[in-house]
User: What shape does this take?
Amino acid sequence: MRAVVYRGEHDVRVEDVPEPSLVDPGDAVVRVRKAAICGSDLHFYNGRVPGVFEGTVVGHEYVGTVVDVGSEVTTFAVGDEVVGSFQIACGSCAGCLAGRFNHCEELGVLGYGIFVGDLAGAQAEYVRIPHADVNLLRVPAGLSGERALFAGDILTTGWYAAGIAPVSPGDDVVVVGAGPVGTFAAMAARSMGARRVVAIDMVASRLALAESLGAIPVNSAERSPTVAVEDVLGGQADVVIETVGLPPALITAIECTRTGGTVSVIGVHTEFEHPLPLGNLFARNITLRFGGSCNVQGWWQRALAAIESGEADPTVIVSHRLPLEDAAEGYRLFEAKEAMKVVLDVS
Assistant: This one.
């Protein structure tokens, strides 16, 4: 089969690799129809993920058709149209049984290397999914694959980030970072009843999209975001959602939060340490809520319901649709911020 393979920093190639088959009785094999390039894929693309070695089949956002199931799979059958979670949970440990699938004791991530399960990724014609009953979700009849595609990762991540704050009706919300996850977090905040949503970014095209979806844009390359937020809101925000994963973005989020407010951190932070304004946080009673890896299986039904009801149209973020064979160009465009979101047509 054809698949996107990591060959080194800034080097992914589409190559022939063996097709996956069932390994355990809880497995399913899915024929991938569409896959996407995720912002977290850029971490290994830029050489920042230890354990993603040369030859790894990458990617973790996908929809497709079940083509084979193990003897213990009870929820799915051959021919079912499914969206898959980017993270692989076992479904039976204490974390999973409590509904905290992102706390799974055996947590894996598709296409992300030996430290998270050493699982082949989904930017490929076929992908093997362990514990399929837990890690697949049936696509509702009448819903296109592209509309369901992001329920397995970034759409649900946006809903999770807003939900764990939580955003309440009447809240003023700031989203730091207007990329795909930030866009969906802003959608979620509005769905949850936010009064006003401010989107902060430095990329004009992202801010234009945010504005078209009802957010108030702030270009942090042109003015101080904290001053801009005070001007727009007449103060600071009840909830700030940080989606960037860099220390300056977290500091901006803290500065934009009102006394007694909450910062929901869903950006992927990889630094081992960074100074924080502890006195400021203490004096103003700011809650820092780190989301960690998204609890996809605990939240994806809510995200999918928002699509079905019309509250969310996830396809608005798609800027490029490319064949699988052009995946390397898709990575280049995404890394250069020339693309908002790249969808790969696999079959």
Remarks:
- Residues 2-153+295-345 form a domain with the Quinone Oxidoreductase; Chain A, domain 1 fold (CATH 3.90.180.10).
- The longest helix spans residues 296-309.
- The two ends are 12 Å apart (CA to CA).
- Residues 111 and 121 are 4 Å apart (CA to CA).
